[in-house]
Design brief:
The complex is a heterodimer of chains A (about 120) and B (about 475). Chain A has about 120 residues and is an all-alpha fold. Chain A has 5 helices and no strands. Classes of the chains: A mainly alpha (about 120), B alpha/beta (about 475). At the A-B interface, helix 1, helix 2, helix 3, helix 4 and helix 5 of A face helix 1, helix 2, helix 3, helix 4 and helix 8 of B.
Chain lengths: ~120, ~475
């Protein structure tokens, strides 16, 4: 077994351990965005598609490169875009009455304010 | 190690740190929004440095550049367009689709490497590459077809009912044997392309037969699990092409996705094993559904519902799957607005699994501009019910069934919202149909409960109109 493979396996195992630790007690509110975010991270497979492209020298290689690039790019671009859209929804979370949410129509913040007053 | 390779390795390390920190920040609602950009810039760095490397190495041909650029443009454009256009209610299936293509890409990378190494006479293929490729053409295709089926089920293109054909288990078993047998043949050092393709084909069918028997309500957990698989597939692809960036990020997602799957299953009161094998909500549900709904129910119209709520001092809205499916979140918000303008206190009680997956309902209501302070998680909401004049249940079923407090039925022990403790209850529902657990909801036959049979969106709109005419707004 080569030294390179040994260090690759070490990296693999340690990364798994980090993965187990990094997600702890997540409120269920965040399960959906969190899943989407981790989905976007494995879009790093696009790096693999690029390396495949650099090694392709025949028709089979080119076809596989193209399809892999389509798939991987869809994963990474779409993954981050949809996660971002979801997280935009959390923008107005902290005390809506305290500050005007940026970009929101003024009627919204007025209603939000009225609501917290009624509370 | 040449300078460029050292730089590349260190940038991958920085990117990996970015992924870890980014995902970690998403553990808490307060920091969640900061996490995504960190992770995204880490991705940009990883892609950028790889681009620099392949340009520097100059092994890539002109056609290779063209294929890569065209592929990235097509895939990136499609992904961006879908992500921008998707309705918030359809997010779970879109995530599943992106997951499918990620798994597919990992498999294709492994296949491309295998083809290149077996096809060339000058270089021999290493055992490591064979083993890694074999694993990848098992995991990748399974996640590819499995995620597509899951997305299809959520979108309604494939029936959400568990599909169990006679002999499905046999076929699944046979496919597993083909896959593992083929893999051991390759492991023994035989770099055979036909065998690799056979494994790939078996894995593609296996993904279908694995997910088809699982009910639509369990799909979120299945998607989370397949998401974790894709992470592992990407890590293994990293072994194939000898790339530490892929190994780190893939393994990290594989593990964190696994934890997330378990958390989700717990929130939904299911075990992962039960879901994969198929427990209640699959075979059992059909039997239970055949039993007619017993007990008397009290019907209610939009006007009655409007009157009750307009003159209440506190109303708790309990949104469920039906509200998400009917995309009635905006109507729910309108109702809250018109009631509040009339001095009624309005809260939303969110069950952890309301909507299509844990946390989905919060996203939907946030989209409709319901302020975060009005959304109450189950633990906060339950003490509020006894003081509520009206609890309005919109398209929620099992999560409100008091039967869960008793042992001896499919939902025993499931955490529920104490809707039955409110002074009166209005249920908007299309029919007396059963929820996912396939049992009668005792809440509906409670004397305090009025049933308003309507589509969630239309029913809410009618109630809003009713309240408006009452208060002269």
């Amino acid at each position: 077994m080569s030294a390179g493979l040994v260090s690759d396996i070490s990296i693999f195992v340690l990364a798994i351990l980090v993965g187990f630790e990094v997600i702890s007690k997540v409120p269920s509110t965040l399960h959906t965005p969190l899943m989407s975010a981790s989905n976007a991270i494995h879009g790093v497979v696009v790096v693999g598609a690029m390396i495949t492209a650099s090694a392709a020298h025949d028709t089979t290689g080119y076809v596989l490169t193209f399809v892999a690039a389509v798939f991987a790019a869809m994963n990474v671009v779409g993954g981050y875009a949809v996660t971002d859209r979801m997280l935009q929804m959390f923008k107005k979370r902290p005390a809506p009455a305290a500050r005007t949410p940026e970009g929101a129509p003024s009627s919204d913040s007025e209603q939000a304010g009225a609501r917290s007053v009624a509370r | 190690m040449s300078t460029i390779n050292t730089v590349v390795a260190f940038i991958y390390l920085v990117a990996a740190i970015g992924f870890v920190v980014g995902l970690h920040l998403m553990n808490s609602p307060a920091t969640a929004r900061k996490g995504s950009p960190i992770s995204m810039w880490a991705m940009v760095a990883a892609v950028g440095v790889t681009l620099a490397k392949i340009a520097y190495d100059q092994t890539i041909t002109g056609i290779g550049w063209a294929m890569l650029a065209a592929g990235v443009a097509v895939g990136g454009f499609a992904g961006l367009r879908m992500a921008r256009r998707v309705k918030m209610t359809a997010i779970p299936q879109l995530v599943s689709l992106f997951n499918a293509v990620g798994g597919g890409a990992a498999a294709l990378i492994a296949i491309a490497d295998f083809v290149r190494l077996t096809g060339s006479s000058t270089s021999s293929i290493s055992t490591t590459a064979i083993v890694a490729s074999a694993i990848d053409v098992i995991i990748g295709p399974v996640t590819f077809t499995g995620s597509l089926i899951a997305a299809g089920k959520l979108q309604g293109w494939i029936t959400g009912e568990p599909v169990i054909l006679p002999g499905t288990r046999l076929i699944t078993g046979a496919l597993a044997i083909v896959g593992l047998g083929g893999a051991s043949y390759l492991f023994a050092g035989n770099a055979s392309m036909p065998v690799l393709m056979t494994i790939c084909g078996a894995a593609l069918v296996f993904g279908v037969t694995m997910v088809m028997p699982i009910g639509g309500a369990d799909m979120p957990v299945v998607i989370a699990l397949l998401n974790s698989f894709t992470g592992i597939a990407v890590a293994i692809a990293g072994f194939v092409i000898n790339n530490a960036g892929l190994i780190i990020a893939g393994a990290f997602v594989g593990a964190s996705g696994g934890i997330l799957t378990e958390l989700m299953a717990i929130a939904m009161n299911r075990s992962i094993l039960n879901i994969l094998i198929g427990g209640f909500g699959t075979g059992d549900a059909k039997v239970a559904a055949a039993v007619a709904a017993g007990g008397d129910i009290r019907r209610l119209g939009a006007e009655d519902a409007a009157i009750q709520m307009a003159y209440a001092s506190k109303v708790i809205i309990v949104p469920g799957y039906g509200l998400a499916a009917a995309q009635a979140q905006h109507e729910a918000r309108q109702l809250a607005d018109v009631l509040e303008a009339n001095g009624v206190e309005v809260l939303f009680a969110i069950h952890p699994v309301a909507g299509r997956m844990p946390g989905h309902m919060n996203v939907l209501l946030a989209e409709a501009n319901v302020p975060y302070t009005a959304l109450k998680e189950m633990d906060e909401a339950n003490p509020e019910f006894p003081t509520a004049d009206v609890a309005l249940v919109v398209g929620a079923n099992d999560v409100t069934n008091p039967a869960a407090r008793r042992p001896g039925n499919p939902i025993s022990g499931m955490p529920i919202l104490d809707v039955d403790k409110a002074k009166s209850i209005i249920v908007i529902k299309r029919s007396m149909g059963h929820g996912y657990a396939g049992i009668d909801n005792e809440l509906y036959t409670d004397p305090k409960t009025g049933m308003f049979f309507a589509d969630a969106k239309q029913g809410l709109a009618e109630i809003v109109a009713g309240v408006k005419s009452l208060v002269g707004a």
